[in-house]
Predict the structure.
Amino acid sequence: MKGTVKGLWNIVLSGYPRSGKTMLAKRLIAENPYFARVGVDELREMLFNETPPCVTNL
C-alpha cells in the first residue's frame, strides 16, 4: 500500500475467526504511521466507561 491517506478514516474489520483480520490491521498500522488500532474492549471503555464482562478488577 503506497501513498498518503488524507482525511479521517474509520476502518472496521469483521469476519470469521482466523480469517486474517488482526494480521491485516497490524499490516495497515505498520505501513501507515498515522493509523491506530482500537480494539472493541478499548472502544467500549472509551464510549461507555465500561470494562468487558470477562475482566475483573483485582
Remarks:
- The chain has one domain: 1-58.
- The two ends are 43 Å apart (CA to CA).
